[in-house]
Amino acid sequence: MKTWQKATFITVLVLFIAASVTISFVSMARAPFEYEYQTEIAEIPGNEGWVLFGFNGNTSTKEVFIDYVRDENGNNPDESKPVSAVGDFTMNTDEYVEVIHIGKDVKHIYETSFFYCKELKAIEVDAQNEYYTSVDGVLYTKDMKTLLVYPIKKDAVETAEETEEEVRREVSFTIPEDVERVGSCAFYKNEVLTEIKLPSTLNEIGDMAFFKCQNIALVTLPEGLEKIGSDAFSYCHGMEHVMYIPASVKEIGSFAFYNCKNLKEFYMGAQSKDGIVFGDSWLPKNIEKVVVNVAPEEEYGKTRAQAEQRINELIAEGGEK
C-alpha cells in the first residue's frame, strides 16, 4: 500500500471512530424525556400540539406518564402543556418500562411508538381520552377498530431461569369482535402466547404484526380478511401443516410467512392468482445452515374444510411415524 493510501485509510478510520464515539456520547447524554411543539403532527397541517418524541429509559424508569410536558426526568408535569402525540419509535426497544399511562389529551400514537418494549406489561389510558382506550392492558383505538399494542410481557410469569421449562403453559388471547385491523408490530416478538383467535370482523393484519411469535400455533384466518402485511407472520415456527388463505384476501405482503418452516402447504380459497397482489417471497422459504429450502406451491380453489381435513391427515401421518 502506497504512503498516500495509508494516510487516507488512517484518516478515514480516525474519522469513523470519532463519529462513533460522538454518537455514543450524544446517545448517553440524551435526556430521558424529550418534547417539542409540532404544527403538523402525523404530517397533517394544523394538527398541532406537544409531542413526546424522545425517550431514553434507565433501570429506575418502570412507569411512564404521557399526559403533560414534564421535566427531563419525567417529573413535575406542566398542566398548561398537555401532550398531544407520541412520536414514531419514541420508545424503541426499551428494556425497563413496565407500565405506560396515556393521558386524556393524547390524540395521535404511531403504531410503532412503543416498538418492542421488552418489559412492558400494560398500557393504561385515561377514561376521558377520546382517541384511545385500553382493555386489560392492551391498547386499542377508542372505537375498538384497531388493536395497536399487545404488551410483550403481559402474560409473562416471573421465574428463575433454572425452572423456566417447568412453567411453560398454554396462553391464549382472543381479539375482540369488531376489531378490523391488527396494527403493525402489535404482537412483535411475543414468545409467551401459544394461541391467537382472530375475530370474524378482521380485514387487515399489519406489517410485522406477529413477527417472531414463535410459539403461536396454526392461526385461523377469518373470511373477510383482505390484507396480510409484509413479514406479518415471519418466523412463526409454531404454525404447522396447512395454512388456509380465504378467498377474500387480495393482498399478501413481502415475506409474510418467511421462515414459517413447519407450514408445508398453502390452500388458497381463491380460484387463481388473478386479483391478488403478492409481495416478494411471501411463501415460507427459509434458510438453515446455508441450505435454502424451497417454498411450497400454493394450491388454488380449496375450501376451509379441505384444509382442515388435510391438517388431520398430516397429524395422523406424523403420529404413525
Write a structural description.
There is one protein chain. This protein is of the alpha/beta class and 321 residues long. The chain has 2 domains: 26-135, no CATH class; 168-321, Alpha-Beta Horseshoe (Leucine-rich repeat, LRR (right-handed beta-alpha superhelix)). Helices cover 14% and strands 26% of the residues. The protein has helices spanning 3-29, 304-320; strands at 33-38, 49-55, 63-66, 68-69, 78-86, 99-102, 108-109, 122-125, 132-135, 138-141, 146-149, 172-174, 181-182, 195-197, 204-205, 227-228, 241-245, 251-252, 263-268, 277-278, 286-288, 291-293, 298-299. The chain is elongated. Mean pLDDT is 88; it is low at 4-10 and 12-28.
Short description:
The protein is α/β, with parallel strands linked by helices and 321 residues long.
Average pLDDT works out at: 88
Spans of at least 5 consecutive residues whose pLDDT stays below 50 are 4-10, 12-28
Q: Tell me what portion of residues adopts beta-strand conformation.
A: 25-35%
Level-2 CATH architecture of the largest domain: Alpha-Beta Horseshoe
Task: Tell me the number of strands.
Answer: 23
Sum up the structure in keywords.
Leucine-rich repeat, LRR (right-handed beta-alpha superhelix); alpha/beta; 26% strand; 321 residues; 14% helix; 8-stranded mixed sheet; elongated; 2 domains
Please specify the SSE layout and strand pairing.
Layout: H1 3-29, E1 33-38, E2 49-55, E3 63-66, E4 68-69, E5 78-86, E6 99-102, E7 108-109, E8 122-125, E9 132-135, E10 138-141, E11 146-149, E12 172-174, E13 181-182, E14 195-197, E15 204-205, E16 227-228, E17 241-245, E18 251-252, E19 263-268, E20 277-278, E21 286-288, E22 291-293, E23 298-299, H2 304-320
Parallel strand pairs: 2-5, 3-6, 5-7, 6-8, 11-13, 12-14, 13-15, 15-16, 16-18, 17-19, 18-20, 19-23
Antiparallel strand pairs: 1-2, 4-5, 9-10, 10-11, 21-22
